[in-house]
Amino acid sequence: MSDTEVTTPFEWIGGEDVVRAMTERFYDLMELEPVYTDLRAAHGTDLSNARQRLFWFLCGWLGGPNYYTDRFGHPMLRARHLPFEIGIKERDQWLACMTQAMQETKVPQALRERLEQSFFQTADWMRNKGV
Fold first, then answer.
1. Which of 1, 18, 37, 80 is most buried, with most CB under 10 Å away?
2. Domain 9-125 listed as CATH 3.30.1340.30
3. Largest CA distance in the chain
4. How far apart, in whole angstroms, are the C-alpha atoms of residue 104 and residue 113?
5. Would you say 80 and 59 are in contact if contact means Cβ atoms under 8 Å apart?
6. Cα 112 to the chain's mean position, in Å?
7. What per-residue confidence (pLDDT) applies to 30?
8. Distance CA 13, CA 107 (A)
């Protein structure tokens, strides 16, 4: 499929299989890489629920199936994340981990750059502590 035939980022990325692989790699990196220790600590002991919800969310956010909203309604990202302290360090670790996951799962560079910008805007908007 050429870029001119693609209608959504979900199609451009390669559909559910790639979104699943990217999500799995994101959480695997969080557990494996010492640079993401603080990010991992914020997620509790079991990542299975977070893995599934992020996959569902990303599918819909990218223009694919609305698994998340069908189950839980509007994502209300900021409200759902208010119980967690999110500052610049947490934002930057999340973004770095997602960027690494996108690179390692071969998300096309042009799409990755667009997603990195969108992820930054969302992650920065979710900050609820100064640093």
1. 18
2. no
3. 44
4. 14
5. no
6. 12
7. 96
8. 6
